[in-house]
Amino acid sequence: MIEFSDVGLRYGNGPEILRDLTFAIEPGTFHFLTGPSGAGKTSLLRLLLLSLKPTRGRVTMFGEDVADLSQDALLQMRRHIGIVFQEFRLLDHLTTYENVALPLRVLGQAEGEYRNNVTELLEWVGLGERMDAFPSLLSGGEKQRAAIARAVIARPKVLLADEPTGNVDPDLSSRLVHLFAELNRTLGMTIILATHELPLLERFSYPRMVLTKGELEIHE
Ligand SMILES: Nc1ncnc2c1ncn2[C@@H]1O[C@H](COP(=O)(O)OP(=O)(O)OP(=O)(O)O)[C@@H](O)[C@H]1O
């Protein structure tokens, strides 16, 4: 589903910050992405999100070489990829319900079509009672559950997460990872979750993609 072959990335004329990345991610798998600060985790996620193109090598997603895709085709493919950020990135002027519904509105669905899906998903992530609250009134854990719901409401095939537990209490971190694990188990969503929290890596036995100074090793 995702294949990298000899991929390298540099920003502008700077040094190559990802080097010789060659790996394959099978559909329905869950991987942690880890490594020291500055190792290139966010940059790798941006390649996977198709918001950056590699400066060398080949990235294949869903069977297509992304270098061959038109801008339109890239946008279409991008719809199959969801992302969750450390800092939530919810829109403050929209309620929790409206934030989660937004991707479906952007896809042109009418409220009558999506209302039940959004409500069910919010209940599933434990925000059934907080649907009408604005993000400023949510706790960190609640904000992240809303952000996860927004990322998955359009049922992406791949879900990326960049330090999703970085802004919540440590005891809530593993509850959030359980949520990702459920999405993986019940919907078969392919998940790549970047974290440097050792307790999480130890508590869950998922394979680890370890980046060190731009080079990647996968520990199954
Ligand atoms: N837009 C950019 N322009 C130039 N250099 C960049 C840019 N973004 C990241 N870098 C550099 O690329 C390297 C990798 O950064 P990246 O953010 O991918 O690492 P990271 O592993 O996610 O780090 P952290 O855990 O601290 O978030 C760093 O040296 C960083 O300074």
Automatic annotation (TrEMBL):
GO terms for molecular function: ATP binding; ATP hydrolysis activity; transmembrane transporter activity. It is found in: Cell inner membrane; Cell membrane. It comes from the Bacteria. It is a peripheral membrane protein. The keyword Cell division applies. GO terms for biological process: cell division. Keywords: ATP-binding, Cell cycle, Cell division, Cell membrane, Membrane, Nucleotide-binding. Residues 2-218 form the ABC transporter domain. One of its GO terms (cellular component) is plasma membrane. Homodimer. Forms a membrane-associated complex with FtsX. Part of the ABC transporter FtsEX involved in cellular division. Important for assembly or stability of the septal ring. Belongs to the ABC transporter superfamily. This is Cell division ATP-binding protein FtsE. The gene is ftsE.
